[in-house]
Amino acid sequence: MSSFIGGIFNGADKVQMVSLDQRHKRGEIISSNIANAETPGFRAQGYAFEEQLQALTNTGKGLAMNVSHPKHMKNALTNADGMLKPDIYVRPTEDISHDGNTVDMDEEMARMAQNQILFRSAVELLNRKVGVLKYAINGGR
Amino acid sequence: MSFFKSMNISSSGLAAQRERMNILSTNLANAQATRGGPDGGPYRRQDVVFQAKPMGNKFEDLITGANGSHLNKVKVTDIHVDKSAPRMVFDPGHPDANKEGYVAMPNVQVMAEMVNMIAATRSFEANATAMEDAKQMAMKALEIGR
């Protein structure tokens, strides 16, 4: 990303972009849980990235620090490819059904709806930003 | 394409539930079939066995079988035949009746099959909703900068 573009799209926009990417991946985990809602022994998975994202934005070092070699310096909060390192975990739960499955369908549906809304809001925020840019490019017309 | 991954997962769920529905229909259709079972006797009810299948996203993962990803598709890996005893019904006029006049009927419980069918339908709907959700996300992402 050149400094010009980097200047237009500042840290806040990058947070939105990373958030879009992460919400998309969370959607995949939710789909996987729903598809396996009746698989015996399947444990529902959770996907946490908000804390990592917040920690990254608080470091002030910027989000993407791309590395192309394993010995390159990298941010402890990102993967080798400079992407955010989310936490994929087996979701702790108290109610396990008789076949060892821990997927709660209502919970997954609620999570999916929430994920969808937050994804849309991130798109909306980016669109507002682009709208402002268009306004500036057109000279306020 | 990464955006199609969740659709692939959901479609595996749809396919698995559809297969389950086929087996349940078979059970209901054969609820009175006194011949043609696995041992020549009455029909035995069948059930699907679901298994989570990790989705390898890299070529190496597919070769080494390593769990390269946390995402799981679902697959019907086995069709289990219920070995429980047939239902004995007293019907001396039936051609398949034994000496005491009892006919071995399939071990299909129509109510249980109906309940399973409702569960399959709901599960199918949930997967369809998840797929719709993934589609909406992809469509919304196409609107960025419009």
Write the layout of secondary structure elements.
The complex is a heterodimer of chains A (141) and B (146).
Chain A lengths: L2 H6 L2 H25 L9 E4 L1 H10 L27 E4 L14 H33 L4
Antiparallel strand pairs in A: 1-2
Chain B lengths: L4 H25 L16 E9 L4 H6 L7 E10 L5 E4 L11 E4 L4 H33 L4
Antiparallel strand pairs in B: 1-2, 3-4
Helix pairs in contact in B: 1-3
Description:
The complex is a heterodimer of chains A (141) and B (146). Chain A is mainly alpha-helical. Chain A has helices at residues 3-8, 11-35, 50-59, 105-137, and strands at residues 45-48, 87-90. Chain A has a domain at 1-42 and 103-141. Helix content of chain A is 52%, strand content 6%. A two-stranded antiparallel ribbon of chain A has the order 1-2. The longest helix of chain A has 33 residues, at 105-137. The two termini of chain A are 28 Å apart. By secondary structure, chain B is an alpha+beta fold. Chain B has a domain at 3-31 and 46-81 and 108-144. Chain B has helices at 5-29, 59-64, 110-142, and strands at residues 46-54, 72-81, 87-90, 102-105. Chain B is elongated. The interface between A and B is medium-sized, with 32 and 38 residues.
Outline type of chain A: flat
Task: Give unreliable regions of chain A as ranges.
Answer: none
Binned strand content of chain B: 15-25%
Percent of residues of chain A in helical segments? 40-55%
* Major sheet size, sense and barrel closure of chain A: 2 strands, antiparallel
Using only C-alpha atoms, the radius of gyration of chain A works out to: 19 Å
- The succession of helices and strands of chain A, N to C, reads HHEHEH
What is the H-and-E element order of chain B?
HEHEEEH
Q: How far apart are the first and last residues' alpha carbons of chain B, in Å?
A: 22 Å
**How do the strands of the widest beta sheet of chain B line up side by side?**
1-2
> What sort of overall outline of chain B do the alpha carbons produce when their principal axes are compared?
elongated
Number of strands of chain A: 2
Oligomeric state of shown chains: heterodimer
Give me the count of strands of chain B. 4
Count of individual helical segments of chain B: 3
Rg over alpha carbons of chain B: 22 Å
Global structural class of chain B: alpha+beta
* Overall pLDDT score of chain A: 81
On the 0 to 100 scale, the average pLDDT of chain B is: 88
Low-confidence stretches of chain B: none
Structural class of chain A: mainly alpha
